Amino acid sequence: MTTSWTLADLEAAIRADWLAVRQPTLLVRGDRSGVLSAEHAREMAVRRGGVRLVELPVGHGVRAGDPEGFRGVVGEFLRRL
C-alpha cells in the first residue's frame, strides 16, 4: 500500500510537530537563506513559546557557513538551560 502525500499534507504535519514541542528550542537561520525566509522563521518563533531565534550572516548551511558562530550560539543556548 502506498500513501500519497500532498505538499499541504506535509506542511500541516510539520507545523503540528513544531507546535507540539514544549522544550526550549534554538532556531538558527542563515540571513541569506533561500530556504527559510526571515518572515517564516519569525513566525515559527512567535507561534511557539520558548524559541530563541538567531540569525547568522550566511546562507542556508549555517553550520558549514559559520562553524564558529554556530558553535557560539549553540554553546550560549545550552549554558542558559
Characterization of the model:
- By secondary structure, the protein is an alpha+beta fold.
- It contains four helices and two strands.
- A two-stranded parallel ribbon has the order 1-2.
- Strand 1, helix 2 (38-47) and strand 2 (51-56) form a beta-alpha-beta unit.
- The longest helix is centred in the first third of the chain and has 14 residues, at 7-20.
- 9% of the residues are buried.
- The mean pLDDT is 93.
Key features?
alpha+beta; two-stranded parallel sheet; single chain; 2 strands
What is the compact description of this entry?
The protein is 51% helix and 15% strand. By secondary structure, it is of the alpha+beta class.
Give the helix/strand layout.
Blueprint lengths: L6 H14 L4 E6 L7 H10 L3 E6 L5 H4 L1 H13 L2
Parallel strand pairs: 1-2
Percent of residues in helical segments?
40-55%
Number of H- or I-type helical stretches: 4
How is the largest sheet built, in terms of strand order? 1-2
* Overall radius of gyration: 15 Å
Shape designation: globular
Mean pLDDT: 93
- Strand/helix succession: HEHEHH
Major beta sheet summary = 2 strands, parallel
End-to-end span in angstroms?
44 Å
User: Roughly what fraction of the amino acids lie in strands?
Assistant: 5-15%
Q: What class, by secondary structure content? A: alpha+beta
